[in-house]
Design a protein that fits this description.
With 230 residues, this protein is α/β, with parallel strands linked by helices. Helices cover 35% and strands 23% of the residues.
């Protein structure tokens, strides 16, 4: 996943630029109906979800495709952090013989090259998934101005992938993040990781800077709770 390069490049600064991701991770953990003992987390980053886990667990496997992010992740008893791309053969081999009470993921699975394949694999090792994903409506105005397509999965594709293997509850939430000036706003786009590796051409970047009149950025996320397997 080339998109991960954006996260790695600014890994040390990332905590200053992932405000929405932190909000999503905190909300995800707060809404859990149980405190699982065996947990798999996909796209663990520098520990946004883990920092909100306040109960003891027997096994916590945290996966992320960025080595730099994995190095920043907190360490703990019964916690294993592994640098793996969740679209890779190595990842599927890693989890194949495992079983987990719950799979957690925040602000990560929208980058998958084949989300249905991941959910199918997860359906064989867990009964419950709680996840939050950005949708393609994130930075919608930017896409309209630059006439560019979002690198992120759209809402329908996300719902279809999960609903093929689980009965689910979905909740869509929009966030607007305000900035004091244009420079701060454009710095956030570059360093937050939400835009992936989709670098704009000089012409499009110039057009965007000139025509973007909002003092905020738009984010859309979808919370997914699996109820039961199909």
């Amino acid at each position: 996943m080339q998109e991960k390069n954006q996260f790695s490049k600014y890994a040390k600064e990332y905590k200053s630029y992932n405000i929405i991701q932190q909000i999503c991770a905190k909300s995800l953990v707060r809404e859990l109906k149980s405190k699982p003992k065996r947990i798999l987390e996909l796209g663990c980053g520098s520990g946004q979800i883990f920092s909100n886990i306040n109960w003891e667990f027997n096994k916590y496997l945290a996966i992320d495709g960025s080595k730099q992010m994995c190095e920043l992740h907190p360490k703990a008893k019964n916690l294993s952090v592994k640098c793996l791309n969740f679209d890779s053969v190595e990842f599927f081999k890693e989890i194949k013989k495992e079983s987990f009470d719950m799979v957690l993921s925040s602000s990560a699975l929208q980058w998958s090259n084949d989300l249905k394949k991941i959910i199918e694999a997860l359906s064989k090792i867990t009964k419950e998934i709680n996840a939050v994903l950005f949708t393609s409506n994130t930075f919608k105005t930017i896409q309209n101005i630059t006439n560019s397509k979002s690198p992120i999965l759209d809402e329908q594709s996300i719902k279809e992938a999960f609903s093929k293997y689980f009965l689910c509850e979905f909740e869509k939430i929009s966030y607007n993040l305000e900035f004091e000036d244009k420079k701060s706003l454009f710095d956030y786009i570059k360093k937050s990781g939400v835009s992936g590796s989709n670098e704009l051409s000089f012409e499009k970047a110039k057009k965007l800077y000139k025509e973007y009149s909002l003092n905020y950025l738009e984010f859309e996320v979808i919370f997914v709770k699996t109820i039961s397997k199909l």
